[in-house]
Amino acid sequence: MKVVLENLTKIFPSRNKKSNEEVVAVNNFSFEIPDGKLVGLLGPSGCGKSTTLYMICGLQKLSGGKIYFGEDDVTDLPPEHRGVGLVFQNYALYPHMTVKQNILYPLQNLKGADKLSKEEMLSRTEEVARLVQIDGLLDRKPSEMSGGQQQRVAIARALVKMPRVLLLDEPLSNLDARLRLQTREEIRRIQKETGITTVFVTHDQEEAMSISDIIVVMKKGIIQQIDEPQKVYDDPANLFVAKFLGTPPINVFEGEVKEGMLFLGDDPVMRVSSVADQPVWVGIRPEGFILDENGPLHCSLEGVEVMGRDVSVVSEHAASQNPVVRSIISAESHIDTASPVIRYSLKPNKVFLFHKETEERLL
Ligand code: ADP
Ligand code: MG
Asked: What is the C-alpha to C-alpha distance for residues 164 and 315, in angstroms, rounded to an integer?
């Protein structure tokens, strides 16, 4: 089932009694979610991710725009008639019910033509419990399970009604690091097995990168970029997207293009013949630096951090917008840690130029 979002807009009245300023939580959001894909909705806290999700599921009314599931206009349909499954950050299971009762509950509330027989309800419950691998725990209470297991129950409960669309709002945030990794892979497997069109909300770029077919990056209610994860990383549309993706984060410098040469401070680091003379922001990925004793970029060496396969070289440069410049290079490289200066040349495909005012990418 494809999902079409057309000019989705949500304006909240001011919460502050003294000011009348409204909050535009989601601003003219248009995107077609392809059938059977997992879309990651990524952005910092407060950028409108949850509001977008709640509009898709019908818990939040639209201020403007349209939503279609396939060819059906569902814009004014109440949540229970949309065929959506929703999973929140806090699993919100009923504590006094067993796992089985928790999963059965949404089925028992089905009315009219949707009503199921007792046998059908039980077999559906067992089927989704197997899918999320909690079929051995059906008689336990939520308090007798780990966080990861509880979140699986919540996912089973969202799946048991066979939703047309699955919506997940930061479902891994309450889990510890190891469980987060494991559960994220589980969600990916379940999504692939069921083929349900899924929207996965997260503020964690690594999580979004690893789980999504397509990433939508949002800032202040506005879509910044829509693309496959690797494309967003390799080809960021603007400085915000470039800074939001990647660990360690991209290194940002103040630079200037003069007669086809890019300068960082006094260092002429790279030819950029296609860009007109102007001041620019320059983003350099940590893996974009090449150790080069004759290299044009001169940094003052601060330290070397060993990370196993790679090392991270920490240095400083006057044009850097971050306190330190961080490069990632192979652990086999020889670095003279006694030297006060480290010199680099740059990999052109890891260097991005942005307009100084608009912060849009210059190509
Ligand atoms: P996210 O999920 O990306 O953290 P939200 O969608 O929850 O962001 O919120 C987007 C913006 O809308 C924020 O500025 C938030 O304060 C505001 N907002 C969310 N819900 C309401 C509400 N019920 N009333 C007023 N403002 C709200
Ligand atoms: Mg949220």
From this structure: 51
As given in the structure block, the two tokens for residue 24 are: 């535009």
pLDDT at 16 over 80: no
* Length of the chain (residues): 363
Q: Are 269 and 288 in contact (CB under 8 A)?
A: no
89 or 82, higher pLDDT: 82
Q: Considering just the CA atoms, what is the radius of gyration of the chain in Å?
A: 25
- Give the span between the Cα atoms of 238 and 225, in whole angstroms: 9
Beta carbon of 94 within 6 Å of any ligand 1 atom: no
Summarised one tens digit per residue, pLDDT across range 146-171 is 888 998 999 999 999 889 999 999 99
**Which token pair is 265?**
């401070």
Helix, strand or coil, per DSSP, at residue 294: coil
250-265 residue pLDDT tens: 999 999 999 999 999 9
Superfamily of segment(s) 3-244: P-loop containing nucleotide triphosphate hydrolases (3.40.50.300)
Residue 204 CA to ligand 1 centre (angstroms): 18
Distance, CA of 191 to CA of 198 (rounded, Å): 7
Mutate to test the pocket of ligand 1, among 17, 21, 24, 51 (most ligand atoms within 8 A of CB): 51
Using CA atoms, how far residue 267 sits from 57, 258, 271, 343, in Å, is: 53, 12, 12, 11
Q: What is the pLDDT of residues 107-144, one digit of tens each?
A: 998 888 788 899 999 999 999 999 888 999 999 999 99
Pull the structure tokens for residue 56: 């898709």
Average pLDDT, the chain: 94
Domain-wise residue ranges, the chain: 3-244, 251-362
Tell how far the Cα of 17 is from the centroid of ligand 1, in angstroms. Answer: 17
**Verdict on whether the full-model pTM lies above 0.90:** yes
The predicted pLDDT at position 113 comes to: 79
In the reported structure, the alpha carbon of residue 49 is separated from the centroid of ligand 2 by a whole-number distance in angstroms of 6
